[in-house]
Amino acid sequence: MEKSLTEKQTKAKKKKGICALFRRTWKAVKHAILRGNKVSPYPQPGPSGLEPKALQDPADPQPGSSGLNSELMPDSDPSSLRPTSHTTDPDGSVPFVSQYEKGQRLGVGGFGTVFKGTCISDGQQVAIKIIPKNKEDDYIVVSGYSKPLIKEVGLNLRVKKSPTSPNIVQMLDWFEEAYHHMLILEYPQPCMTLNSFLKFNRRRVDENQARHFMLQAVLAAKHCMDRGVAHNDIRLDNILIKTDTLELKLIDFGCGELIEGCDDEDNQSRGHVVPELYVAHKYALSETVLSLGNLLYRMVEGQSALENNPKFDCNRCSKECQDLIRLCMKYNPDETPTLEQLLEHEWFKQGDDQE
Predict the structure, then answer these.
(1) Which residues are annotated as a binding site for ATP?
(2) Is-catalytic flag, 89?
(3) From the candidate CATH numbers 3.40.190.10, 3.30.200.20, 3.40.50.300, 3.30.300.20, the one assigned to the domain spanning 64-186
């Protein structure tokens, strides 16, 4: 009798434990389902890190929906993303998987993974950058958009405003998923990074070639600054060279920053950027000019300049080129030249690229 009562109590405890486990499991599954279908109005994205870009202004300034598996957690491998089978989203927008096909991985950076992609409607080749959301990600307010946008998208929208620059890879579109942002980027072909280009040319190029690239790099940087954007990461791997035309294109705004007080619409109405804006943001300008100086030094000397007194091979580098590099490498922001002053330098008036 006592044994029978003990067995009943044991069974009751087991049954209660199973029910509790079932309730906890169902609660977790229900939470995951709801979370997978919901995008926070103030999401948490993450910067970027590789290949090309271009953009179209949406009629309703909201991102599309990626259609990618929404239950992939932020720390999962982006290469494991798989599209879902639906063709339209609840809000009526056309999802990512109905517009683009994701192909092979092109590269991985600190802020995202870039894949080759194809536009389904016309077969256009694009680059697809997948950026995991992160609670530390920054959002910025962009005129005409109803909510703050992930910073990289917002900066691309500013840079893309007409007139666009041929020396910056453009963002074509973007999509937002529960745990990721997807940027659809221009994919110039055939192309390679400037780093790869230099490796194919024994680590350096002659001054005429360097002048051709440097001029385009300065114009790209100026275009960004004129629209209130500091790229902050101008280097060999963030520059593409279109190998059939030798056109240079700056990529990757993952490290970029909005320059407060530098309103691109005001600048366009004036037709130029007033000098006071550069003075007010001298540190952003100093970083940009220093990066450009290092870029030029790397092209003509085949190595990076890690000091403000770079060494030169006088047989390979003209006095005018040396002067421009030293001008760029003034570490005191108060001595930094403007980008307009760089373009007016005597070195740009020499050689085959005189304009």
Answers:
(1) 129
(2) no
(3) 3.30.200.20
* φ, ψ of residue 78 in degrees (nearest 5): -60, -25
Q: What is the pTM assigned to this prediction?
A: 0.71
DSSP for 279-338? Answer: HHTHHHHHHHHHHHHHHHHHHHHSS---SSS----TTTS-HHHHHHHHHHT--SGGGPPP
Distance CA 156, CA 308 (A): 32
Is 337 within 8 Å of 325 (Cβ atoms)? no
The β-bridge relationship of strands 171-176 and 64-65 is parallel
Give the bridge partners for 64, in sequence order. 175
Q: Count Cβ atoms within 10 A of the Cβ of residue 118 and give its class: 0-12 exposed, 13-18 middle, 19 or more buried.
A: middle
Q: Are 96 and 68 in contact (CB under 8 A)?
A: yes
163-196, pLDDT tens digit by residue?
Answer: 999 999 999 999 998 889 999 999 999 999 999 9
- Place 86 in a pLDDT band, splitting at 50, 70 and 90: very low
What is the chain's percent helix, strand, coil content, to nearest 5?
Answer: 40, 15, 45
Pair of tokens at residue 261: 């007080």
Active-site choice (233, 237, 313, 334): 233
The CATH superfamily assigned to 191-349 is Transferase(Phosphotransferase) domain 1 (1.10.510.10)
- Quote the CA–CA distance of 47 and 129 in Å, as a whole number: 10
Distance CA 49, CA 113 (A): 7
Which residues of the chain are in CATH 3.30.200.20 domains? 64-186
Residue 32 to residue 348: CA distance in whole angstroms: 59
**CATH 1.10.510.10 location in the chain:** 191-349
Contacts of 352 (CB under 8 A, 6+ apart): 208, 211, 212
What order do you get walking across the sheet with 191-193 strand by strand? 191-193, 239-242, 247-250
Chain center to CA of 253: 3
Q: Which tens digit of pLDDT belongs to each residue from 37-79?
A: 322 222 233 333 333 333 334 344 455 543 333 333 334 343 3
